[in-house]
Amino acid sequence: QVQFVESGGGLVQPGGSLRLSCAASESISSIHTMGWYRQTPGTQRELVASISAIAIDHYADSVQGRFIISRDNARRTVALQMNSLEPEDSAVYYCNGVAGIGGVVAPWGQGTRVTVSS
Q1: Contacts of 102 by beta carbon, 8 Å cutoff, 6+ apart
Q2: pLDDT in tens, the chain (118 residues)
């Protein structure tokens, strides 16, 4: 079963940028839609960005215009460029394949923590 390892998180000031990366243990070419999710304590994990096999992307309203998702099937990676970060973006970020409504294709990884604070 495919596994995902997220990296690139850290502490950044409001208005700053970070680029998250997700590395898959095997090919993601057969996964139609890949997504980036985030979770804060006491809340459900939410899908913030997704990208289809033909590079059609979708974003949650809260990140629209600030985040950009991309995928490289050859390198088995999915990236999330996060710009104009806000304190509300602080969370643990995860990547996974999207399987239907609310479903994912693999167990969750460790995630990468993003903290936006001055």
Answers
A1: none
A2: 999 999 999 999 999 999 999 999 999 999 999 999 999 999 999 999 999 999 999 999 999 999 999 999 999 999 999 999 999 999 999 999 999 888 999 999 999 999 999 9
